[in-house]
Specification:
Blueprint (H helix, E strand, L loop, with lengths): L15 H36 L3 H4 L1 H24 L1 H17 L1 H6 L3 H28 L6 H26 L10 H23 L7 H10 L13 H22 L1 H7 L6 H26 L4 H21 L2 H15 L2 H9 L7 H10 L7 H11 L7 H25 L8 H10 L7 H4 L3 H10 L1
Protein name: MFS general substrate transporter
């Protein structure tokens, strides 16, 4: 049976109104999985109380959620390569709603294994949505501003991640709800309804299909031919998978034990207050993303990722070593510098992949599976030592991510000369063709488009 490939366009071929509608529609998906992720980390601590399980056992939720990304993301990439982004979104939302619905019987019969299984199904749905939404936003316009667009869209994921712990602090940990699962079943029933509503909206809305063939032609027309080749030679994408796996593992590990960390700091914080403070950690993270949108308008994404990576390493180490309010303050700063990392790794890893765009997107999203094994490692250390010391585990993930970022900066400097500004690859190709010696001062050479056009005409 032959697959029927969708006929499509590139982001640059859309009118502004169609581009804006498509951007807003897909951005709505980021709120969906941000809400689910925000609730996950709070359920981690809630189930410790209700089921009387250890910190290590509670991380089975993270193992199921992020393990689903490892299992399902490659399939999601192949599915969308043959059937398009829109059908991939429908598949993701369907799995998301099904997983959320079955939280009801799991809560009613108080089966922890049921929660783990439902979380796996939700993770499969969200991995499909991430491949679709992240990839679609990245290619919906110029590669120069892909990181800026994705940071803006993912900022709404951060808003939802803030709402999740806020709801939990109000309803999960207070009164009789502190030791029951009654509220959990109602919250996830609402989550299932949200997924259903979005699925219906996408069915009736026209979403322009952006195909890999059209993207490849666009890349070749710009003169960017170095990135065209077999998939295994797309080193920026392959190593991007490693960086994403390490970063997401670190991010999830940090968030998974925030409630435990705050309570253990002995500064008068109980579980309800800790959950509320965690929601403000997520708000700090979200604010960092919107600040990142502004910075990425001018600063090169690889260079900014390098700087933020160093800051993540520094403050993660400070969280592990500092005590009391100093440690809490460092935790908030760590959340701020985590903000741009995922979108930048994704856009840098999938940049100019052409016919490999959806396969590469599936691979990078598969890296989210790092969240499956970092929390258990941290949980095991937290059970044996102080929770604060367990934050040495995510430190290793930030190290790997920072090495990747610096590697990209060095690679760019070798090919095009060092530059701190966010410059379109097409301008770099044109400038290099016009005057190779000018690459030594590329930031000055691309001050504005008129200078570049003048050099091309003179050539």
């Amino acid at each position: 049976m032959a697959f029927e490939r969708p006929v499509g366009v590139t982001g640059s071929e859309l009118t502004f109104s169609r581009w804006l509608f498509s951007f807003a529609l897909v951005t709505s998906l980021f709120f969906t999985w941000g809400f689910a992720y925000g609730l996950l980390d709070v359920l981690n601590a809630h189930f410790q109380q209700v089921f009387g399980i250890s910190k290590l056992q509670s991380t089975l939720l993270q193992l199921a959620y992020f393990g689903a990304y490892v299992v399902f993301s490659p399939f999601a990439g192949l599915f969308m390569r043959h059937y398009g982004y829109k059908k991939g979104i429908h598949l993701g939302l369907t799995l998301y709603s099904l997983g959320a619905v079955f939280f009801w019987p799991s809560a009613k019969y108080e089966k922890y294994g049921g929660f783990v299984g439902c979380t796996f199904v939700i993770g499969c749905g969200l991995s499909c949505l991430e491949v679709a939404a992240n990839s679609y936003i990245s290619v919906l316009g110029s590669p120069q501003y892909a990181a800026m667009r994705l940071n803006f869209s993912q900022g709404f994921q951060g808003l939802a991640s803030f709402a999740g712990p806020l709801i939990a602090s109000t309803y999960f940990f207070r009164g009789k709800n502190a030791n029951t699962l009654d509220t959990v079943q109602w919250v996830y029933l609402a989550v299932a309804c949200l997924g259903l509503v979005l699925n219906i909206l996408f069915f009736f809305c026209h979403l322009p299909e952006i195909t890999e063939e059209a993207l490849t032609k666009e890349i070749v027309d710009k003169g960017i031919v170095n990135d065209i080749g077999p998939f295994w030679r797309q080193y920026r994408c392959v190593f991007g998978f490693v960086a994403q796996m390490s970063y997401v593992g670190a991010q999830v590990a940090v968030a998974s034990f925030v409630v435990n960390y705050l309570v253990d700091q002995n500064v008068g914080i109980d579980h309800s207050k800790a959950s509320l403070m965690f929601s403000f950690c997520q708000l700090t993270f979200t604010g960092g993303r919107f600040v990142g949108v502004i910075i990425l308008r001018w600063v090169d994404p690889a260079l900014l990722l390098s700087i933020y990576g160093v800051m993540c390493m520094t403050f993660c180490l400070a969280v592990a070593l500092a005590s009391g309010k100093a440690g809490v303050g460092c935790l908030y700063i760590l959340f701020f510098f985590e903000s741009i990392c995922y979108p930048c790794i994704f856009t840098l890893g999938t940049k100019n992949l052409g016919i490999h765009t959806k396969k590469g997107s599936g691979l990078i999203v598969m890296g989210v599976g790092g969240g499956a094994w970092y929390p258990p490692a941290q949980g095991a250390l937290a059970d044996k030592a102080y929770t604060r010391r367990s934050y040495l585990v995510p430190f290793s993930g930030y190290v790997a991510m920072t090495i990747y970022a610096f590697g990209l900066v060095i690679d760019q400097a070798t090919k095009n000369g060092f530059h701190w500004r966010n410059i379109d690859d097409a301008d770099l190709v044109a400038l290099r063709s016009a005057n190779p010696d000018s690459m030594r001062s590329v930031d000055d050479g691309i001050t504005d488009v008129s200078i570049t056009e003048k050099k091309i005409s003179e050539n």
